[in-house]
């Protein structure tokens, strides 16, 4: 690919520079073919988000047991497939309605990763390897199983926290196998023997929601407010996005109840956000946490987020990595990283190509093929 202007930073909406495919090092015909492929392989998820039998797709798709499946956060109908591709920060391709906020499921986890970095920079988290109980004085960490849990354990999804949060037991996601996880000893939602914190990776939304609650406790205000002030405004995002928790999710701080958000849409809630705003966040991470001359994320934090964890080399701190030996998407470049949500919703960052892509509502089994078609559109090495 020809060199791009890495100094270009898009201004706040609506202006955002575009670049012709050829000038950005893409074959225009192949790029258009990739877009057509996405639109032809829409997810099977109903646009209403509810199956004909009345079940919510967010719980049905992952096989929640009936006793764990109650929806306790807001749910909205989804939009049609859409996306955009950035080259050197400029839009080289865009399709569908990329300005409409949409549920984004577990991409919200990657935003929690950004907020954790701000907590470290502010001194609210002194050390990722410090037990959370040192600063979050709640019943959540009183049990012997939970007392040793560190911030790093929560961020790497290896905490093995045991308990019930916002009415959902951690066992709801026991034996949930997602990318790079060890084979499960039983069915999803079946109670299993606990391991020591740090010894086992499990993609567990109850524990991610605990991370969100602990960060809320440390910041002392709603995480959407922190994200808006410290990240989204500096990078020129719109104000159309929302981040919801559950109807019963509140943290007590100084006698005041502060709402606590969820790390996805598993039981409703989570982030409702447009693809263009996602693309800005992806570009921020691609640029090591800087936006033009402004450092938004602390120096070194992006590197920390994208370092493979000992128990799952495909996972960092709330971010997915294309690390081996069994890479998540073989069609992506080796250094690729992802913010990934069910549905499928994806932010793909390919540093080798100076590329950031966002695509929404593609069939799960077609993600790799779509990425391969985008890569095939790149001219040159």
Descriptive account of the structure:
InterPro entries: Beta-lactam-related (IPR001466), Beta-lactam/transpept-like (IPR012338), Diverse_Enzym_Activities (IPR050789). It comes from Aliidongia dinghuensis. Residues 104-359 form the Beta-lactamase-related domain. With 381 residues, the chain is an alpha+beta fold. The chain has a domain at 109-261: 3-Layer(aba) Sandwich (Beta-lactamase). The chain is 24% helix and 17% strand. The protein has nine helices and 14 strands. The protein has helices at 28-40, 57-60, 107-121, 151-156, 205-219, 223-232, 275-286, 301-305, 367-376, and strands spanning 82-87, 90-95, 102-103, 164-165, 168-169, 242-253, 256-261, 270-273, 290-291, 294-295, 320-321, 337-341, 345-350, 355-360. The strands form four sheets. The chain has a six-stranded antiparallel sheet, with helices on both faces. A four-stranded antiparallel sheet has the order 3-8-6-7. Strand 4 and strand 5 (168-169) form a beta hairpin. Helix 3 runs parallel beside helix 5 (205-219) and helix 3 packs across helix 6 (223-232). The longest helix is centred in the N-terminal third of the chain and has 15 residues, at 107-121. 50% of the residues are buried. The mean pLDDT is 96.
């Amino acid at each position: 690919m020809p060199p791009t202007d890495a100094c270009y930073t898009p201004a706040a909406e609506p202006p955002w520079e575009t670049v012709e495919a050829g000038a950005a090092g893409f074959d225009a015909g192949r790029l258009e073919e990739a877009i057509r492929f996405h639109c032809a392989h829409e997810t099977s998820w109903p646009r209403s988000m509810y199956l004909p039998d009345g079940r919510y797709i967010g719980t049905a798709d992952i096989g929640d047991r009936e006793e764990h499946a109650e929806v306790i956060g807001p749910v909205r109908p989804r939009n049609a497939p859409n996306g955009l591709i950035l080259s050197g920060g400029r839009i080289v391709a865009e399709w569908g309605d990329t300005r409409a906020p949409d549920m984004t499921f577990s991409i919200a986890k990657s935003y929690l990763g950004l907020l954790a970095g701000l907590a470290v920079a502010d001194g609210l988290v002194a050390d990722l390897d410090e037990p959370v109980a040192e600063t979050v004085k709640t019943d959540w960490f009183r049990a012997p199983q939970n007392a040793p849990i560190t911030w790093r354990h929560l961020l790497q999804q290896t905490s093995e926290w045991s308990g019930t949060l916002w009415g959902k037991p951690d066992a709801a996601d026991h034996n949930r196998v997602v990318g790079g996880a060890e084979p499960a000893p039983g069915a999803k939602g079946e109670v299993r023997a606990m391991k020591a914190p740090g010894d086992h990776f499990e993609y567990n939304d109850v524990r991610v929601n605990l991370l969100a609650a602990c960060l809320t406790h440390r910041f002392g205000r709603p995480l959407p407010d922190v994200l808006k002030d410290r990240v989204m405004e500096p990078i020129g995002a719109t104000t159309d996005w929302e981040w919801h928790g559950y109807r019963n999710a509140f943290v007590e701080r100084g006698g005041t109840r502060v709402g606590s958000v969820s790390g996805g849409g598993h039981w409703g809630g989570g982030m409702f956000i447009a693809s263009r705003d996602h693309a800005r966040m992806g570009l921020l991470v691609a640029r090591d946490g800087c936006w033009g001359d402004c450092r938004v994320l602390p120096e070194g934090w992006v590197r920390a987020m994208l370092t493979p964890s000992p128990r799952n080399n495909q996972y960092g701190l709330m971010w997915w990595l294309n690390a081996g030996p069994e890479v998540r998407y073989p069609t992506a470049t080796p250094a690729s990283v992802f913010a990934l949500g069910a549905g499928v919703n994806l932010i793909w960052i390919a540093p080798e190509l100076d590329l950031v892509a966002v695509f929404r509502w593609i069939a799960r089994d077609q993600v790799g093929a779509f990425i391969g078609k985008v890569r095939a559109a790149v001219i040159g090495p």
